[in-house]
Amino acid sequence: MAEIQLKSLAHSYSDSPTGPDDYAIRQLDHVWHKGGAYALLGPSGCGKSTMLNIISGLIQPSEGEVLFDGKRVNELSPRDRNIAQVFQFPVIYDSMTVYENLAFPLKNNKVPADRIKTRVQEIAEVLEIEDKLHKKAKNLTADEKQKVSMGRGLVREDVSAILFDEPLTVIDPQLKWKLRRKLKQIHEQFDITMVYVTHDQLEASTFADKIAVMYGGQVVQFGTPTELFEAPNHTFVGYFIGSPGMNLVEVERCAGGVCFDSTVVPLEPWQADLLERMTSTNVKIGIRPEFIEVSAISSDDTYESEVLDVEDLGTYKIVTVRLANQEMKVRQNEEFEADLGSQIHLSFPKQWLMLYVDEFLIQEQQR
Amino acid sequence: MSLTLENVSNTVDGVDYVRDANLTFEAGSFNVLLGRTLAGKTSMMRLMAGLDKPTKGRLLYKGEDVTGKNVQSRNISMIYQQFINYPTLTVYENIASPLRLAKMPASEIDRRVKETASMLQIEPLLKRYPLELSGGQQQRTAMARALVKDATLVLFDEPLVNLDYKLREELRAELRDLFQERQCIAVYATTEANEALALGGTTTLLHEGSVIQSGPVMDVYRAPVNTLAAQLFSEPPMNMIRGRVTDTEVTFDEYSHHALTQELAALSPGDYWFGIRPSHIALVPANDDDLEMSMEVALSEISGSETFMHVENSHFEMVTQLMGVHQYRTGAPVKVYLPINKLFVFDNDERLVHTPSRISGGAV
Prior knowledge:
The complex is a heterodimer of chains A (367) and B (364).
Chain A: E1 4-12, E2 23-32, E3 37-41, H1 48-56, E4 63-68, E5 71-72, H2 78-81, E6 83-86, H3 98-108, H4 113-126, H5 142-154, E7 161-165, H6 173-190, E8 194-198, H7 201-207, E9 210-215, E10 218-223, H8 225-230, H9 235-240, E11 247-254, E12 257-260, E13 263-265, H10 269-276, E14 283-287, E15 293-295, E16 303-312, E17 316-323, E18 326-333, E19 343-347, E20 354-357, E21 360-361
Parallel strand pairs in A: 3-8, 3-9, 6-7, 7-8
Antiparallel strand pairs in A: 1-2, 1-4, 4-5, 9-10, 11-12, 11-14, 12-13, 14-20, 15-19, 16-17, 16-19, 17-18, 20-21
Helix pairs in contact in A: 3-4, 3-5
Chain B: E1 2-12, E2 15-26, E3 30-34, H1 41-49, E4 56-61, E5 64-65, E6 76-79, H2 91-101, H3 106-119, H4 135-148, E7 153-157, H5 165-180, E8 185-190, H6 193-199, E9 202-207, E10 210-216, H7 217-222, H8 227-232, E11 239-245, E12 249-252, E13 256-259, E14 270-276, E15 291-302, E16 306-312, E17 317-323, E18 333-338, E19 344-346, E20 352-354
Parallel strand pairs in B: 3-8, 3-9, 6-7, 7-8
Antiparallel strand pairs in B: 1-2, 1-4, 4-5, 9-10, 11-12, 11-14, 12-13, 14-19, 15-16, 15-18, 16-17, 19-20
Helix pairs in contact in B: 2-3, 2-4, 3-4
């Protein structure tokens, strides 16, 4: 197990990069602490697979250093780094039994035979496949195969970290729950550094204690699932986390706060204060569909809006409304009813109204 | 204009891929086939496309028997999980290819290609070649090619499975809107309950080759015909608890006793399965007669906006889906509350015998 540090790391697939656009990863510093459960989340092309391959040693970064417990490992192969990897598709030997598959990495490392036996048994119990140990791997179901694949990563006691590259893609939704729960238990039990790459926010947030959100080759936020949800520090995080994402509205400075169309949205004094000191005209407000409140009656701090659509998603409803010239999404419970074209009154609770300048969150501690 | 499957079965080497399916798909409808891997979704689509011939039964299109007629003679588009593009053609020419085959005027081709490309957010890539694109972009190119022509039957076989979840969310909404304006039959296979709910239209539940239930999406969701349908159409899966009803009370696994109040009073004595969706279980009671159960926290998963709490005791386990952040240590004791008016009840043969009143819908 190790602490993994990325120091002034950058990577370009081009031999002679000329500008930031030539970089798959733009210069960054990042630390994955010992024993943490992390996710690396972002859309395709954001650089997350490149980052994972740099950690594992499949790719050598063009700039900067990769340090394991403070030691430079740039030149070491994945094997010498003691990294275990679990891929999208199970990597197992079909002709071998489950037992032989699990024992294989240990035999390669010349672990004594009796130790192999107890260790394989232990891992099989954790993964609940002990009754399958003597089955040929080719006779297993997709999720059992992926469990064996994970087992091959877990079985070695000397691994620095386990890297997961979208490991649940081929698994049925009903089983994803079980496997995710299993992974989390394994993390609690073995206290091992795990990095999990995914483009699925739910997978990332249920697995990881902390998530690094990548966008355009950079880590735009590194935080707990709650932090990413409640205070996204970049508009991309607001948009990407949450389904539907955060409502983001372009606004202008005006008397009493910020405005769009003729709608005035008051700001907290500290927000107004900070905004006044900035010159950028790229200003947005953001509020999550979950945090907009709907009331039947109008008052001083409600906004009149027109219901355009009510989408029933079973356990909740997504209401699309028009407020002045803006469309917004509001999440309501499954009992919500409203006629299309009718008026509802919205309010934006102050603690959930975010202010973004040049796409970054304005935070109180900046004062 | 409709497509009908009449007593259709397909058996290959003694394995039933489709068992006695009877379904009708209307023009202008959006139809979702929901089922796990190997449920028969792809097999059924291949039969509809004429790629396979059923071993039993008939396919009727506009009332005419088309059993075994192939794709070329019928105007069909099929979109697969793994997309295929022409590597030597630009994205533009890939999308235009079916229209060129149909000898459409160049100006019309240009209009349609650009319109479809912009819907799928690949307009800036039109001059590139498929191999210069990311996986997601290649998939969108293939999807554009299938959507650019006006097919009468469009078959989607888990087309979004390899895409970013955010892009999936956007494409789903686009697809729904796009097909609202078209007069074709759209059939869409997925393994995800949430995708079926988001797409709307008609939902058909498939399991091991058989049709379990078919109807408007909310009808199926609110009144699943049996425990299997309930489990297939719920994510996380609906919680199922074994219970026994006597003249005076209901007992869960001979462990937890409750008075027969509200709508449960109508149940005749016997053994039942009680089903409740994870989102309907609460940590605080909403009514005096909510069923209270003492559990232990097995795992608390926080997604940011919601918490999925797995709870268990020596008798059963359940998953709850709670709004907001609830941090509980594994092993912590917790009381959960099940509102009576949100319980589904299934008989010993696992058939639905009672639909909860609060969520049966229709009462607008």
